[in-house]
UniProtKB/TrEMBL annotation:
Any single biological process term in GO: tRNA methylation
Biological role stated in the UniProt entry: Catalyzes the methylation of 5-hydroxyuridine (ho5U) to form 5-methoxyuridine (mo5U) at position 34 in tRNAs.
Binding partners and assembly: Homodimer.
Organism annotation: Sporosarcina thermotolerans
Keywords: Magnesium, Metal-binding, Methyltransferase, S-adenosyl-L-methionine, Transferase, tRNA processing
Recorded catalytic activity of this chain's protein: 5-hydroxyuridine(34) in tRNA + S-adenosyl-L-methionine = 5-methoxyuridine(34) in tRNA + S-adenosyl-L-homocysteine + H(+)
TM region(s), chain numbering: none
Descriptive protein name: tRNA 5-hydroxyuridine methyltransferase
Claim: Methyltransferase is one of the keywords in the record: yes
Length: 213
């Protein structure tokens, strides 16, 4: 944690006991959730946007979904998780949070599942935080559900610095994933239908605003 991050952290209010419990659970079980700096920035962006409906790809244990609904009074979230154990943990945490009336969680592989399972509406925001090597496929499948003027957010765009390492120096098991992530970044940064920015916050947050016709 940098000195600036520590300084900012000391200025913010302590999170609820449930959020702290989830952060500890994720750390102890090596479950990837957004770090505090990244989620605080992300939630801040959502407060500016004020979306009514968010579609999330990658629930994990429900941490980001709970943080979003607790910060934006009128937002409702549909979130998808393919890992059964994480899905079950997310269901429990969402119920304990008291936000189960505003968070709909679906168990399934977002790349394989029937899109009819998703409530039919235009979403104001799409948050992609799942398999990093599949970001382009997630984007292509679900971006059509985002309303014109809506925003698509993607986390972990830096993969803890791995995108800066030449392919030949990466572990072989990670090369395809990192190559796909970098290709997706180049593709979306130049996409004519989106205004895209990449923020050096947390592990890198990409923001793509869908242009209006």
């Amino acid at each position: 944690m940098s000195e600036y991050t520590t300084y900012i952290s000391n200025l913010t209010e302590a999170e609820s006991p449930l959020i702290q419990e989830m952060e500890n659970f994720a750390e102890e079980n090596r479950i990837p959730i957004m770090d505090r700096n990244g989620i605080d920035t992300f939630v801040g962006l959502l407060r500016i946007q004020q979306p009514k409906f968010i579609l999330e790809i990658g629930s994990a244990i429900g941490y980001s979904a709970i943080r979003m609904v607790s910060s934006i009074k009128e937002v409702s979230i549909v979130t998808i998780e393919r890992d059964k154990e994480r899905y079950e943990s997310a269901v429990e945490y969402i119920e304990r949070s008291g936000y189960n009336d505003r968070i709909t969680i679906i168990e399934g592989d977002a790349l394989l599942m029937d899109e009819d399972l998703i409530p039919a509406r235009q979403y104001d925001a799409l948050f992609i935080d799942a398999a990093k090597g599949q970001y382009k496929r997630f984007f292509e499948k679900y971006s059509k559900h985002v309303a014109p003027g809506g925003v698509i957010y993607c986390d972990n765009m830096f993969m803890h610095g791995a995108v800066l390492i030449p392919d030949e120096e990466l572990p072989k098991r990670n090369r395809t994933m990192i190559r796909n992530l970098k290709e997706f970044t180049t593709w979306i940064m130049g996409h004519p239908q989106y205004e895209t920015s990449l923020l050096p916050v947390g592990d890198g947050i990409l923001i793509a605003v869908k242009k209006r016709d």
